[in-house]
Amino acid sequence: MWEIIKTATPQIIAAGIRYTIPLTLLSFAGGIFLGVITALIKLVVPSGNPVKKGLIRILQGIAYFYVWLFRSTPLLVQLFIIFFGLPNLGIKLPAFTAAVITFSLNTGAYSSETIRAALLSVPSDQWDAAYSLGMTETSVLWRIIFPQAVRIALPPLSNEFIGLVKDTSLASSITIVEMFTVAQQIEAKNYEPLVMYMLVAALYAVLCSVLSLLQGWLERRTSRYAQEGDEAVD
């Protein structure tokens, strides 16, 4: 058993470095970008001329439908639709690209609600105070509201990131040779399913534990400034 573990571990780790980690990072970055855009669209209050109001309502309708769709369907089904289904429409994507798109869209749908809630949790009187200083709406958003929202959204977004690391194992179903796929390939040769699956589970656990420690450090780092601000007020 130990010889199998000694031989298989470097191969699984190599697959993690080559596919699992890049897939996670690219998908999370894309998901956060989509989440921010979607959250901002849903928070916009329609105003101005009828054409502008109509356009905003259309965009909000698309945003709400997007979030509903990806939160209401299984991630595995979404992977199959994009990788196996889209070729029927003439859209054939490489497996890695299809996985990044799917994971990004799924992460974006979930993170948009987290980001929207974080933005809404910032007291509205801060907008008024910033406007009284002559700041533009964009400046208020990026210099005052977003920094506070990031601190609030950090714990749930970190949890989503850790969850995404584990979800990348589903990419094995569309031929991506990530950590779980390598474990399956080795198991097919040595006929030791319990050893191989426990090994890959342990490696996922180590990776997620490291990320959890990083999450705790980031939370303490960002909370420090809030605590210093509270002490200054006192």
How would you describe this structure in keywords?
disordered C terminus; 0% strand; mainly alpha; 83% helix; MetI-like fold; 234 residues
Description of the molecule:
This protein has 234 residues and is mainly alpha-helical. The chain has a single domain, classed as MetI-like fold (Orthogonal Bundle), CATH 1.10.3720. 83% of the residues lie in helices and 0% in strands. It has 8 helices and no strands. The chain is flat and about 70 Å long. The C terminus is likely disordered. This is Amino acid ABC transporter permease. It is found in: Cell membrane. It comes from Lactobacillus selangorensis. Belongs to the binding-protein-dependent transport system permease family.
Mean pLDDT: 88
Report helical residue fraction. over 70%
Largest sheet: none
* Beta-strand percent range: under 5%
Domain ABC transmembrane type-1: 17-215
Family: Belongs to the binding-protein-dependent transport system permease family.
GO molecular function: L-cystine transmembrane transporter activity
GO cellular component, one term: ATP-binding cassette (ABC) transporter complex
List the helices and strands and how they pair.
Elements: H1 2-43, H2 50-72, H3 75-85, H4 95-121, H5 125-132, H6 137-167, H7 179-190, H8 193-233
Describe the structure in brief.
83% of the residues lie in helices and 0% in strands. It is mainly alpha-helical. The protein is flat and about 70 Å long.
